[in-house]
Protein backbone atom coordinates (compact mmCIF):
# COMPACT_ATOMS: atom_id res chain seq x y z
CA UNK A 1 0.00 0.00 0.00
CA UNK A 2 2.77 2.45 0.91
CA UNK A 3 4.59 1.65 -2.32
CA UNK A 4 1.45 2.28 -4.36
CA UNK A 5 0.89 5.63 -2.61
CA UNK A 6 4.54 6.59 -3.13
CA UNK A 7 4.37 5.68 -6.82
CA UNK A 8 1.15 7.69 -7.23
CA UNK A 9 2.66 10.66 -5.42
CA UNK A 10 5.79 10.45 -7.55
CA UNK A 11 3.65 10.42 -10.70
CA UNK A 12 1.72 13.50 -9.51
CA UNK A 13 4.93 15.34 -8.72
CA UNK A 14 6.34 14.53 -12.16
CA UNK A 15 3.13 15.72 -13.83
CA UNK A 16 3.12 18.99 -11.90
CA UNK A 17 6.75 19.67 -12.76
CA UNK A 18 6.07 18.89 -16.41
CA UNK A 19 3.19 21.40 -16.33
CA UNK A 20 5.56 23.96 -14.82
CA UNK A 21 8.19 23.28 -17.48
CA UNK A 22 5.59 23.69 -20.24
CA UNK A 23 4.33 26.90 -18.66
CA UNK A 24 7.90 28.24 -18.52
CA UNK A 25 8.52 27.27 -22.17
CA UNK A 26 5.39 29.16 -23.22
CA UNK A 27 6.33 32.19 -21.11
CA UNK A 28 9.89 32.16 -22.42
CA UNK A 29 8.64 32.15 -26.01
CA UNK A 30 6.20 34.98 -25.28
CA UNK A 31 8.97 37.12 -23.78
CA UNK A 32 11.33 36.34 -26.67
CA UNK A 33 8.60 37.23 -29.18
CA UNK A 34 7.94 40.52 -27.38
CA UNK A 35 11.65 41.38 -27.41
CA UNK A 36 11.89 40.56 -31.12
CA UNK A 37 8.86 42.75 -31.88
CA UNK A 38 10.27 45.64 -29.85
CA UNK A 39 13.62 45.26 -31.63
CA UNK A 40 11.90 45.43 -35.03
CA UNK A 41 9.96 48.54 -34.01
CA UNK A 42 13.06 50.29 -32.69
CA UNK A 43 14.97 49.44 -35.87
CA UNK A 44 12.18 50.89 -38.00
CA UNK A 45 12.18 54.08 -35.91
CA UNK A 46 15.96 54.34 -36.14
CA UNK A 47 15.83 53.80 -39.92
CA UNK A 48 13.16 56.50 -40.29
CA UNK A 49 15.17 58.93 -38.15
CA UNK A 50 18.33 58.18 -40.16
CA UNK A 51 16.46 58.82 -43.41
CA UNK A 52 15.15 62.12 -42.02
CA UNK A 53 18.64 63.16 -40.91
CA UNK A 54 20.09 62.31 -44.32
CA UNK A 55 17.42 64.41 -46.03
CA UNK A 56 18.05 67.34 -43.66
CA UNK A 57 21.80 67.04 -44.22
CA UNK A 58 21.29 67.13 -47.99
CA UNK A 59 19.11 70.24 -47.69
CA UNK A 60 21.72 71.94 -45.52
CA UNK A 61 24.53 70.97 -47.89
CA UNK A 62 22.58 72.43 -50.80
CA UNK A 63 21.96 75.66 -48.85
CA UNK A 64 25.65 75.90 -47.94
CA UNK A 65 26.66 75.49 -51.59
CA UNK A 66 24.13 78.11 -52.65
CA UNK A 67 25.35 80.59 -50.05
CA UNK A 68 28.96 79.86 -50.95
CA UNK A 69 28.22 80.72 -54.58
CA UNK A 70 26.49 83.92 -53.50
CA UNK A 71 29.46 84.87 -51.36
CA UNK A 72 31.59 84.76 -54.47
CA UNK A 73 29.46 87.57 -55.90
CA UNK A 74 30.36 91.11 -55.03
CA UNK A 75 29.32 92.37 -51.60
CA UNK A 76 26.66 94.78 -52.84
CA UNK A 77 24.78 92.10 -54.79
CA UNK A 78 24.97 89.76 -51.83
CA UNK A 79 23.67 92.39 -49.40
CA UNK A 80 20.83 93.35 -51.72
CA UNK A 81 19.67 89.75 -51.97
CA UNK A 82 19.76 89.25 -48.21
CA UNK A 83 18.66 92.60 -46.80
CA UNK A 84 15.28 91.20 -45.73
CA UNK A 85 16.67 88.03 -44.20
CA UNK A 86 16.68 88.01 -40.40
CA UNK A 87 18.98 86.09 -38.09
CA UNK A 88 17.26 83.31 -36.21
Overall 3D form: rod-shaped
- The chain-level mean pLDDT equals 90
Cα end-to-end separation: 92 Å
Content-based structural category: mainly alpha
SSE arrangement, N to C:
HH
Query: Main β-sheet: number of strands, strand sense, barrel status?
Result: none
Coiled coil: 36-74
Keywords: Coiled coil
Key traits:
mainly alpha; single chain; coiled coil; 89% helix
Walk me through this protein's architecture.
- There is one protein chain.
- The chain is built from two helices and no strands.
- With 88 residues, it is mostly helical.
- The protein has one domain (2-81).
- The longest helix has 71 residues, at 2-72.
- The model has no long low-confidence stretch (mean pLDDT 90).
Which secondary structure elements does this structure contain, and how are they paired or packed?
Blueprint: H1 2-72, H2 75-81
What's this entry about, in short?
The chain has helices at 2-72, 75-81. The chain has 88 residues and is mostly helical. Keywords: Coiled coil.
Amino acid sequence: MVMVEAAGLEGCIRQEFEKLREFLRVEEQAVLDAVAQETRQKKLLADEKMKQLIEETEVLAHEIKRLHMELKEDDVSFLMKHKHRKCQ
